[in-house]
Each structure stands twice: as C-alpha cells, then as structure tokens.
Amino acid sequence: MSGDQEQQQTPPPPSMARRASPNILITGTPGTGKTTTAEMVAAAAGLEKVTVGDLVKQFKLHDGYNDEYDTYWLNEDKVVDKMEDMMADGGICVDFHTCGFFPERWFDLVVVLRTSTEKLFSRLEDRGYLPNKIEENISCEIMQVVLDEARESYSHDIVLELESNTVDDMEANVEQIAALVERFRQEHRQSGEA
Questions:
Q1: DSSP 91-156
Q2: Measured between alpha carbons, how far is 33 from 35 in angstroms, rounded to an integer?
Q3: How do strand 109-114 and strand 24-28 relate by DSSP bridges?
Q4: Helices then strands (H, E): number in the chain?
Q5: What residues pair up with 159 in beta bridges, in sequence order?
Q6: φ, ψ of residue 133 in degrees (nearest 5)
Q7: CA 76 to CA 56: how far, in whole Å?
Q8: Are 82 and 131 in contact (CB under 8 A)?
Q9: What is the distance between the alpha carbons of residues 167 and 24, in angstroms, rounded to a whole number?
Q10: CB distance 61 to 82 below 8 Å
C-alpha cells in the first residue's frame, strides 16, 4: 500500500480498531492449498485456525447433502451466526473456498490462492473428486470466480492474490502473510498508545 492510499482510507469500524490481532480469510478454489497454508500461517503468526468446512459438519450448518457434487448444501446464515462471536476479538485465520457471504467487517486481510489448472486437476484427482466436481472447480479457477468474488465483497486494499503451485510458493506466501500480521499488530499497538 502506498502512503497516498493509506491516507485516503476511511477509519476502520470501532470493532476492527480495537482488534490487537487481525482476522484473515484464506480462500480459493478447492485444491489451491488453503488448509495447509492456513495451518502454516496460524502457526507462524500465532493465530487460531478455523476451517469452515469442519464447522459445517460438526455443527450441522447445512441444509442437507448434495449427492451429485459429494458435498453439503451450505446454510450461510447458520455459518455466520456460529462464527460471529469468535471473529469479534481478532486473531483468527479462516479457511474456506468461498467468501462473499462473510460480513466485510470480519476480515483485515483476504488472501486468494491461485493454482495452475494442471496442478489443480492433479490435486483434485488425487483427492478422489468426482469428474463433474473436478470440471466445475477447474472452470472456477480459469474464470477466477473466487478472486472476483473477493474483489466484489471486500475493499480492494485488503484482497491479496497469491500463486500456490509449489512448496516454495506456499512457504513464501506464509512468510508474506505472517509479516503482514506482525505489521498489523505493530500499527494497532502504536495507535492504542496514542
């Protein structure tokens, strides 16, 4: 972010201003490395990791099962209601494959992981995804559906697109995100002292 951009930003909502540690969303098409990246970021930056898919299963935050795509019908309202309190104080790293239904106020950084279609195909095939589910996810990655959704749902200055094709990419991404977390903490510590 340039100095001009920082000066032109509107002040954060009161809840965000009080957070000593940021909330981060790591999103992307299934198979882009969200869960592994989120685990590594949480460990490196001292954040609590929340995998939305696990919450959906554990607390039945869905409206049944979609056999055609071998997945649950997500109930977005139930997910938001379940997560609202946990997001309030910050320090959360959320991992999910979509992002538009989360309240904008929750996140200080939205990371969209991108992967080449060749690597993505191989990863999804290795997971045993059904052919129609692989095809849909490859199409989503080609059309940058998750990236566009993030850009439409959140302020552009908090959306970060990162390549996630190799272990080196993943390690560099974790390092970059952890540095941003530390910068957030320092800035909020300084603003709290003023």
A1: -EEEE-S--TTS-GGG-SEEEEEE--HHHHHHHHHHTT--HHHHHHHHHHHHTTHHHHHHHHHS-G
A2: 6
A3: parallel
A4: 9, 7
A5: 110
A6: -75, -40
A7: 10
A8: no
A9: 21
A10: yes
Per the CB < 8 A criterion, the answer to whether 115 and 29 are in contact is: yes
Residue 191 confidence (pLDDT): 65
- Does the pLDDT value for residue 2 go beyond 60? no
Task: Please report where in the chains the tokens 């997910």 appear, as a residue.
Answer: 79
User: CB of 162 within 8 A of CB of 169?
Assistant: yes
What would the two tokens of residue 133 be? 């589910």
**Is residue 89 over pLDDT 50?**
yes
H/E segment holding residue 72 = strand 71-74
Let me know: does 24 contact 46? Beta carbons within 8 Å: no
Higher pLDDT, 46 or 70: 46
Report the DSSP beta bridge partners of residue 160.
111
Q: How many C-beta atoms surround the C-beta of residue 118 within 10 A?
A: 10
Beta bridge partners of 111: 26, 160
pLDDT tens column, 173-194: 999 999 999 999 998 887 655 4
Which pLDDT score is estimated for 193?
A: 53
Residue 139 has pLDDT above 70, yes or no: yes
